Amino acid sequence: MTAREILSAAQITDVEVVRVNGMLGDHYDPTRRQLCLSNETYDTPSLAAVGIAAHECGHAIQHAKAYGPLKARMAIVPITQLASNLLPFIVIGGFWFHLFALLKMGVLVYLVITLFQLVTLPVEFDASRRAKIILKTMGIVQSGEEEVGVNRMLNAAALTYVAAFIAALGNLLWLLSMTQRRN
């Protein structure tokens, strides 16, 4: 399997590669030291699956090398999870009950989420950059056509994080404008 080969080549022996159910479940869990791959990625020998596995290995390599942006993202995960759980109650409660203080809290919550999305960008772009290098260096991607395909897929995946950041920023600015109107 590609993920195990990449981790072995990077001399990472303390990360377990596990299969997870569900589409889009591919991720690296730094707290459990697990590289989780969906059934589709785990079992499919396609370039897309190999690219995804290499990207997730990129996160494991970041963790092993104490990559600063990954450490920053890991540090703000707990507060981001709390903010995400509180967000619906705060925003809906603020609008429903006309509680201006809750709307102001909503701005702070969205600020945390937007910050998390911003910190996520260099982490994801770097993991994709590492994946491209690994796949070429290890000879997993051999032809120019394969390289172009994997690069396009990894670039497109990275752009989803840009979209998430823009959406969070848009929601933050919208909620901020709503609180300004109430003043």
Task: Describe this protein's structure.
The protein is mostly helical and 183 residues long. The chain has helices at 2-9, 39-43, 47-64, 68-96, 100-137, 144-182, and strands spanning 16-20, 27-29, 34-38. Helix 3 packs across helix 5 (100-137) and helix 3 (47-64) crosses helix 6. It starts with a helix and ends with a helix.
Task: Tell me the total number of β-strands.
Answer: 3
Shape: elongated
Unreliable runs, pLDDT <50, ≥5 residues?
A: none
State the helix count: 6
Give a quick account of the main beta sheet: strands, pairing sense, barrel closure.
Answer: 3 strands, mixed
Fraction of residues in helices?
over 70%
**The number of domains:** 1
- Could you state the order of secondary-structure elements as H and E? HEEEHHHHH
Radius of gyration: 19 Å
Overall structural class, as computed from helix and strand content, comes to mainly alpha
Termini separation comes to 59 Å
